[in-house]
Amino acid sequence: MSLISAKSVYLRYENTSVVEDLSFSVEAGDYLCIVGENGSGKSTLVKSILGLKETASGHLHMGDGLTCKQIGYLPQQQAAQRDFPASVWEVVLSGCLAGKNGNIFYTKKQKALAKENMEKLDILHLKNKCYRELSGGQQQRALLARALCATGKMILLDEPVTGLDPVVTAELYALIKKINRQFGITVIMVSHDLYAATNNATHILHLKKSGSFFGTTEEYLESDVYKSFSGGDVL
Amino acid sequence: MIDTLEILFSQQFLIRALVVGVLISLCCALLGVSLVLKRFSMIGDGLSHVGFGAMAIAAAAGVAPLYFALPIVIIAAFLLLRMSENGKIKGDAAIALISTGALAVGVMVTSMTTGMNVDIYNYMFGSILTMSDSDVVISSVLSVVVIALFGIFYNEIFAVTFDESFAKATGTKTSVYNMLISALTAVTIVIGMKMMGALLISSLIIFPTVTSMRLCKSFKSVVLTGSCVSVICFLGGLLISIKYEAPTGASVVCVNIFFLAVFSLLKAVYAMNKSVLFKRFIAAIICTVSFAAFFAVMLTGESSVYKKEKTTVVATTFAQYDFARQIAGDRSEVIMLLAPGEESHTFEPTPEDIMRIQQCDVFVYGGGESDKWADNILKTVPESVNIIKMLGVVELYKTDHEHEGDGHSHGETEYDEHVWTSPVNAVKIVKAISEAIIEADRDNAEFYKENTANFTAELYELDSEFQKLLSENGGKSIIVGDRFPFRYFAERYSLSYYAAFPGCSAQAEVNPKTIADLIEKAKAENITTVFKVDLSKGSVAKTIAEAAGAKVETLYSCHVIADEDYKNGEGYISLMRHNLNVLSECFK
After folding, report:
1. Is the confidence at residue A24, as pLDDT, over 50?
2. Is the N or C terminus of chain B more exposed, i.e. has fewer CB atoms within 10 Å?
3. Which CATH number fits domain A1-66+153-235: 3.40.50.300, 3.40.50.720, 1.10.3720.10, 3.50.50.60?
4. Which of B152, B172, B221 sits opposite A98 (nearest CB)?
């Protein structure tokens, strides 16, 4: 059964229809990249997947025991976070908040989970460092660890490489791939970077107001949508 | 320092201030972390203005300010949050709109009713020393609730503050916690206003967090350090205010500024490109020097422990001070609480003032609007203090509103408190003070009796001279381009008058129509002199005088005395004789 399946979904942004008749599905273990021009409805779709926004019509169906609260989300960075005095440990641990279930404190199990995820992403040595003193790549790793704390199934990344230099960007993509292949976590990533998307993802969702493309990366590379969008050889 | 601490713990009113102050400082520091980090610092400031507006309305409507302001400010907090979130109006503009709007409404309401009264001034500048019992209880309970809720939802508040979109996506009800934060902020501001004043309360929220953010690297350490800094600054401010007779709120903020400076300096040191050892060395020096300076401020200088030596009369303002000193001569001590030149309506007693009142034998005060602050203190004075309330000694008139140009009327009863402006009332007050002093110091009874008889004779002579002047000039009226604190005087001698403001309200603005009416009257009745009241700038009087081709003269109310007059040894009799002269000049 699919983790997410959408059939004929319509999305709106402030009373304007942005995406019409969208269908796609995400299976466990997939690596889906969502691409599209600015204003094509990527953020709106992200919000709908996270359950923060209703679809105009149609339904995003969650299956296989997944609920939208169990998606580990990595939002775009905000200016306020840049000088926020928080230790890496505090940031990662806050990913466990949803599982706290009304307890005042985090449980031992949750703390162990946070530690484990930091180890996986190789940031355990930064545990007591101040978040604002980390490099951009380290910050994203910390946020990824937090996202993993919130989920065992799926992470959703919203343009995770914005503002990073090419070397760090490549490292981060490798890390996301590792999370997908090695840890078996389903990945959905919103990206501007068509090259990285087609190199890493198993599936591509190219959003357009109508006639969005959904398929495997191989199919996408052959499609007209890709060809006109990449500015490459147009028919 | 020891003696200052001794004072602190020996006085019930100071212990209360201490408890409430520490609790409120804690609340402010805790919420400050969230507000500063969420870029909502100005919401605190905006809410304090809303609080002021609400207090003004409550005072006008005669409702308990705290119960009225609390829900209003909470609603305003939700509104501000909504507006910032929706982004329909930009956050900072929304705050400016609401805060200045509330301020304007507050000022409107006060000016439509009784003018700025003491309650409002208290909320503007704070007065932690004169909190009533119920204020103390409510503030303590609310602070404990705020601190407890912050503790319980600490992790949620962190998540919402650090990254709202992530928290929301993982199922945290961010809007609930945002509402919680704003409700707690609103509560803290309302109870903190009583202590720090509307103008300064937001500094208590912002300073500790910004200070601790200089050095702290985790959220937890910011919260803990901020709380410590906040409490230490409050204690330091309180001690300084006891020692140097400074207002508490401003002292606390000054200590906060000092701490921010020290922390910023330390941060700069740690950012230097030098060896760790060197940096630690410099940091140690900075800490030592700053703390030495901090304690030097507490330890050195004259300690202001007040111990009375002989029979003592404490008078709040000038008229009763002068009466008491005429009677007491050099045999007992007479203290005036308001320094010469100090505005009576904005007076806030220092800890030493309160100790003087508690230890004196006779306390003389007006009992009207401008010394309402005394009511709370008088609840705590021992029975050995003989309290004379001047409004209780004489026959009262209500504050006069009919002679005012625009002539609006109000339901609330308010008595004119300048009872001594009639020499006949002065005689009654002198008699009461004299009896009280004699009771406290029987050994010198004969001396006091003789002084009282002489002074009373002078008052009667003054009275007959006024009577003569005003009966000869019956039917003439005077124009006072100022507030009019002479109601009792005017009644005594059937003097008719036109004044720009009723009573003694220290309103900042005058109604333009009133000025126009007064100018018309001055012209129509060929008036050559427009009066102003002592210690007023007289700008309204000057405006009227210029337009009507008249001159400006001063009438002395003897309420508070100018510094210069005080040094020249002026008294009630000499100042009233000045009034006699300018009035007779005016009637010529």
Report:
1. yes
2. C
3. 3.40.50.300
4. B172
In this predicted structure, what is the pLDDT of residue A231? 66
pLDDT in tens, B212-264: 999 888 999 999 999 999 999 999 888 888 777 777 888 899 999 999 999 99
Residues of A in contact with B162 (CB under 8 A): 81, 84, 86, 90-91, 94
CATH of the domain at B35: 1.10.3470.10
Say if B158 is an interface residue toward chain A (CB within 8 Å): yes
pLDDT band at B504 (very low <50, low <70, confident <90, very high): low
Residue A157: closest C-alpha in chain B: B166
For residue B154, the chain A residues in CB contact (below 8 A) are 104
CA distance A102 to chain B (A): 9
DSSP string for B483-510 = ----HHHHHHHT-EEEESSSTT---S--
- Domain co-membership, B323 together with B227: no
CA angle centred on B79, ends B74 and B84, rounded to 5°: 125
Tokens of B487: 């109601």
Q: Give the nearest partner residue to A81 out of B154, B156, B163, using CB atoms.
A: B163
A129 Cβ under 8 Å from any chain B Cβ? yes
Query: pTM higher than 0.90, yes or no?
Result: no
Average pLDDT over residues A150-179: 89
> Do B233 and B134 fall within a single domain?
yes
**ipTM of this complex prediction, to 2 decimal places:** 0.88
| Same domain flag for B440 and B468 | no
Measuring CA to CA, which residue among B507, B483, B508, B512 is closest to residue B497?
A: B483
Q: Is B163 on the interface with A (CB under 8 A)?
A: yes
Any CB–CB contact under 8 A between B166 and chain A?
A: yes
pLDDT computed for residue B304 by the predictor: 54
What's residue B320's pLDDT? Answer: 92
Average pLDDT, chain B: 83
Count of CB contacts below 8 A, A vs B?
Answer: 91
Residues of B in contact with A92 (CB under 8 A): none
